[in-house]
């Protein structure tokens, strides 16, 4: 994906027959772009190529002399390691659950906030706040202040109604991580969907209402089709961010109790186990997974983008 | 519409407004509780049932800032400030000319270039982490705040290019051409003509880049140690419980989140645009 765009970039200065002034001018047009482009290629693409190369080596940082080429052995080991396979499953589960729930909640909230009511601005601000807490701080807040079985707020509130006093993180570790992420990501989904709702054609909706369409009919046949692309965009961007989540897993459970997702596992396998080759192979697999999601994401972004461009 | 129907609609509207208020307060409750707890004494913070009306004190904040001994958060806060501000500045310096070449005087295949930037954002951080770590180790750049500055710049550059591209596209080309005919050179055109029109958008972009840099944990955790640790890394010191420390945790979380909350509320209107990489306005 990235290779094709850079290749097509390089292919542009083909008009050598033109007088040099035209060539100079086309380079002058391109010049402001180059620092950013070169910087991005060096800082993001080169390390990935290095990861790809390392993934073919048996390389433990504690035994640097024993480094040797092993072909696809690391991939074989990664794909057959039950822990790693479990972390793939955890990643999928975590991402799908968080994205779906926050998308549905976000849609509900966006619909509520699309109406006029007293203090709408304040409610919007209250709802955005969770997204603006530093992720580690948010995870600490859930871990110690809300989930703590002895003095956490959740059990404190349950105490009033005589409810049980569960140990949330030990009993339902993955759900605990998911709940904290849903809390942070629902505002994000709400903001995207609210932007979608506000870009609806209001005359069309008024016309439908005058023609006697019910609220549900308007939602089902006008609003939802219009929102489809925004829903897709929210889902895909959410997936890209949450597939990579490290902060919540690291803070809430330190990857224990079966909550280690792929980024955490990769982090652990080189930072703690010093298995450079294995970590790289796992990293490459994460990238392949992301490319699958990203291909769809880019398509959605590009269709929204082209709409914008053609409208302008 | 009959008067009755209008009244029903209005009453239901009020009910839905109330529901929105309730959910908004529910989402805000953890933060409000965190703020209240940060002003409680440690003994009052760790009670069940919770002590809502306990006496207020600044002990949690004193504890966090290391007044009575213990690690001071100031080096971490300063590191975070330097990394976030400098990287945001670098992002702006690189992104502004790039966005200009992608929106005002467009290079050929400008959409391809734009999508190249976006695609780098979808490359997971963990994929490049190990080579970066090995490089930093060999170059003696581990535990160095400037390494984070470079990485945060690369992390935020695509977002900034996308956002600014869409802001600069709103600058009328005729104005720019007029300035160029008058003999103004590119830097002058950028500073005098483009910047004033695009300034609110540029400010929002900067705020969003600042937020992302300030929040970042994985790079900072792997690549920094004692000297260059950032505020989120400092927070990871609270992961394991240390007796009665709830008020201190709340104070720490709140203080470290404060710059992000401030930046986020300031950039509220442009927040979606930044987070959706400019795809949603």
TrEMBL record, chain B:
- Where do the ABC transmembrane type-1 domain residues begin and end? 77-267
Q: Which family does it belong to?
A: Belongs to the binding-protein-dependent transport system permease family.
Membrane-spanning ranges:
82-102, 114-133, 145-168, 189-213, 219-238, 245-267
User: What is this protein identified as?
Assistant: Carbohydrate ABC transporter permease
Q: Which organism is it from?
A: Streptomyces lannensis
List the InterPro entries.
BP-dep_ABC_trans_perm (IPR050901), MetI-like (IPR000515), MetI-like_sf (IPR035906)
Q: Which CDD domains match?
A: TM_PBP2
| Top-rank taxon, per record | Bacteria
Q: Where in the cell is it found?
A: Cell membrane
Primary residence? membrane
Keyword field:
Cell membrane, Membrane, Transmembrane, Transmembrane helix, Transport
Q: What membrane topology term does the record carry?
A: Multi-pass membrane protein
